[in-house]
Amino acid sequence: MAVLILAIFCVGTAELAPSGMLGDLAEDLSVTIPTAGLLVTVYALTVVVGGPLVTAASTRIRRKYLLVALLLVSVAGNVLSSLAPTFALLVAGRMLTAVIHGTFLAVCVVTAGGMAAEGKEGSAVAATQLGVNLATVLGVPLGTLVAQQLHWRATFAGVAVLALAAAALILLVIPDDGRTAGSSAAHELRVFKEWQVVGTVLATVLCSAGMFTLITYMVPLLTDVGGFPAAWVPAVLIAYGIGSIAGNALGGRYADRSADRAVLRLSWTLAAVCVLYWAAAPYAVGGAVFLLLFSMATFALIPGLQAKVLSAAADAPTLSLTANMSAFGLGAALGSWAGGRLIDEGFGTRAVTLGAAAFTALGALLIAQTVYAGRRRAAAAAPAAAEPAAAATAAAQAS
Hints:
Elements: H1 2-16, H2 22-29, H3 33-36, H4 38-57, H5 63-83, H6 87-98, H7 101-115, H8 121-128, H9 130-149, H10 152-173, H11 185-189, H12 195-215, H13 218-225, H14 233-257, H15 259-280, H16 284-312, H17 317-344, H18 352-398
Helix pairs in contact: 1-9, 1-10, 4-6, 4-17, 5-6, 5-7, 5-10, 7-8, 7-17, 8-14, 8-16, 9-10, 9-14, 12-16, 12-17, 12-18, 13-16, 14-15, 14-16, 15-16, 15-18, 16-17, 17-18
């Protein structure tokens, strides 16, 4: 499991690293900060499109070798990013890195969910998110520090080296149990007839958009709006990451009890935190505190969304989870784009907090609809299930 966490850490760091060094990227490649923010958008859109395609094409490949192959693609993408002389080639490197993201994480989640005891699926999903949390805690701030002290190119090169090491460790340590990544693509597609799956995926798009409207511009929000010293940004990002670990653990335990209740309450909590962040943003300490609360609420919500999809698509989880990963990517693209537009239209960086709140509130409304629809369906099914049992009891008494 430690090897998989390391691999997820590499993938997560590759995704999030640009958020901590947008200024350096923009200055070096002669683009604006909102344009540099498109690196997050492009990555997310590639996850959206590439994830389901890669998953559908790889369902028959044994998990161990699929994970190695995907990581080698990620290595190539990070090497290209580190060497890119132009912004266009950097975008190409990001796309190559992103194409494996959804499939890789989906296979990890399916494996963890299958190994979990009944009623512990939320904690199992949260465990797979630890690598992403560590990317937030260590990868992003360390990447930001490396970019400040050496160069942003060194950050991408470091991720490539670490991902190559993780691929080698998977070959050496992870046993080949003969299991493939999933069933046939046709079988897995059937799960999208279920509204609980489709509705949750759509809600994931909206909640993720709320998350990334703020995440993409969290460094300018700290420095430009709150006046936070740039030298202290890596320390604040470490605190952000610690909050994500705490939120992830709490969210996993909450989802163990009821994924529906967890996602419903936590989505509204995240929306409220974003609104309060708007009030605190002009103050250095207040902004740092609410960034911590934002990270806790964000990462508490994620395990519940994944566990809800895993539960609703138990017979064919791989493609549905990849679709949910793509939903996170689509939301990230929408959110990072929306945050840039808010800034470009003159609303200022502070406005991204309210944009994040609006997206998350819409997601919470959709989650509420799926939860209540599921409850109505269960209530309607209960009398029908009770009738055969009652008839059998009556027959037994009559005999």
